[in-house]
Write a structure and sequence with these properties.
By secondary structure, the chain is of the alpha/beta class. The chain has a single domain (3-223, 278-312), classed as TIM Barrel (Alpha-Beta Barrel). The chain is built from 12 helices and 12 strands. It has helices spanning 34-46, 62-74, 99-113, 132-144, 158-164, 170-180, 203-210, 249-254, 256-268, 274-283, 298-306, 314-321, and strands at residues 3-6, 11-14, 18-19, 51-53, 79-84, 86-88, 93-95, 118-123, 148-154, 187-191, 213-217, 289-291. Strands 3-4-5-8-9-10-11-12 form an 8-stranded parallel beta sheet. Helix 9 (256-268) crosses helix 10. The longest helix has 15 residues, at 99-113. The structure holds NADP nicotinamide-adenine-dinucleotide phosphate. NADP nicotinamide-adenine-dinucleotide phosphate (NAP) binds at residues 19-22, 26-27, 53, 124, 154, 156, 189, 217-223, 226, 228, 275, 292-297, 300, 303-304.
Length: 331
């Protein structure tokens, strides 16, 4: 698989990563299956994927425990990207950016992952109660201590920005400028996909100008862009899509032209799939972009990894770029 470089620490990774969240979090728990998830991770590594994206909050904790079972055997094949600083509370998720907490969270992640060093430690959310420089300083100490190789920031604040009327990712861009003064940022992780393109303005150029890697979260539009979901098919109550405005039957039907476009492009490339076209479109947005498609299925992990071989033509990119904005938002 093509290799790409993640940011300041110049760490090499396979161009397509693996998002491990669906194995333990956010999607229907009744479909989670540890053994088949392990097979998916092994298959991705066999196909040249190296970056495994997880977080202590996924499960909570069980996703890192699962990956620990793989890493115990195949540490050299993997690039471990985990996250700290966000906890699942009784009612909602809570950020904790206090230095002492971050130090304890990192030690606990190392134990669960069965490794002595995390390749990329990402701040899952900035804590509004703690200056971000303080949190980042504690994370930088983890690098000095040899527990972590590089630092990343997650930027999933587009919705909050929209609510306050600020320009999208404005808060994150300010945070990035601040933490960059303390210790180099190696990666930014934010939503980016064919149907969520806000990061193309501001966030992606910020990364490119500074040699920072961009990890594209939710690159398959939570599964929508794969064309395998049926409008009105319904979701289990514990599946994040059951409450997602773009996954009502009406919005899924309204957004079918996006899937139809990915299908048309896929057909021009022989046996390619809409999922692979969605991932290849991301790879074409810059050499610093590494999509992290989430899956718990072996066949889909292999299909997604093969997207690294798909090079879209200029016409394909124009056709996808001309798609209208997706309908259905959180506002
Ligand atoms: N930093 C953050 O706060 C944050 C937030 C969200 C996500 N993320 C990261 O981004 C990763 C990706 O996001 P995501 O997993 O939510 O969304 P996604 O990658 O856009 O889509 C995942 C969904 O697509 C399905 N899928 C995957 N490959 C497929 C294929 N080839 N054909 C058909 N269906 C396919 C999966 O099904 P199965 O699960 O059944 O395999 C799952 O339902 C996460 O795993 C996580 O690592 C980070």
């Amino acid at each position: 698989m093509e290799r790409r470089t993640v940011g300041a620490a110049a760490l090499g990774v396979g161009a397509i990563g693996l998002g491990c969240m669906p194995m333990s979090w956010a999607y229907s728990a009744s479909e989670q299956d540890g053994e088949s998830s392990l097979r998916a991770v092994h298959r991705a590594l066999d196909r040249g994927t190296t970056l495994l994206d997880t977080a202590d909050m996924y499960g909570p904790f069980t996703n890192e425990l699962l990956l620990g079972r793989v890493l115990k055997e195949r540490r050299a094949d993997a690039f471990v990207a985990t996250k700290g600083g966000l906890l699942a509370g009784e009612q909602h998720i809570v950020a904790n950016g206090r230095p002492g907490y971050i130090r304890r969270a990192c030690d606990a992640s190392l134990r669960r992952l069965q490794t002595d060093c995390i390749d990329l430690y990402q701040l899952h959310r900035a804590d509004p109660e703690v200056p971000v420089e303080e949190t980042w300083g504690a994370m930088a100490e983890l690098v000095s201590a040899g527990k972590v190789r590089a630092l990343g920031l997650c930027a999933l604040g587009a919705r909050a920005d929209r609510r306050t009327g600020a320009s999208i990712h404005a808060t994150t861009l300010r945070q990035l400028d601040r933490v960059q003064q303390v210790f180099p940022v190696s990666s930014v992780q934010a939503e980016l996909s064919v149907w969520s393109r806000e990061a193309l303005d501001g966030l992606l150029p910020w990364c490119e100008a500074r040699g920072v890697g961009f990890l594209a979260a939710m690159p398959l539009g939570n599964g929508f862009l794969t064309g395998t979901l049926t409008p009105g098919g319904g979701f289990e109550p514990d599946d994040v899509r059951a409450r997602h405005p773009r996954f009502t039957a009406e919005m899924m039907a309204a957004n079918q032209p996006i899937v139809a476009c990915l299908r048309r492009v896929a057909e021009r490339h022989g046996d390619a799939t809409p999922a692979q076209v969605a991932l290849a479109w991301l790879l074409a947005q810059g050499r610093h972009v590494v999509p992290v498609p989430g899956t718990k299925k072996e066949t889909w992990a292999a299909e997604n990894a093969r997207a690294a071989d798909l090079v879209l033509a200029a016409d394909d990119l124009v056709e996808i770029g001309a798609l209208p904005d997706a309908q259905g938002s959180w506002d």
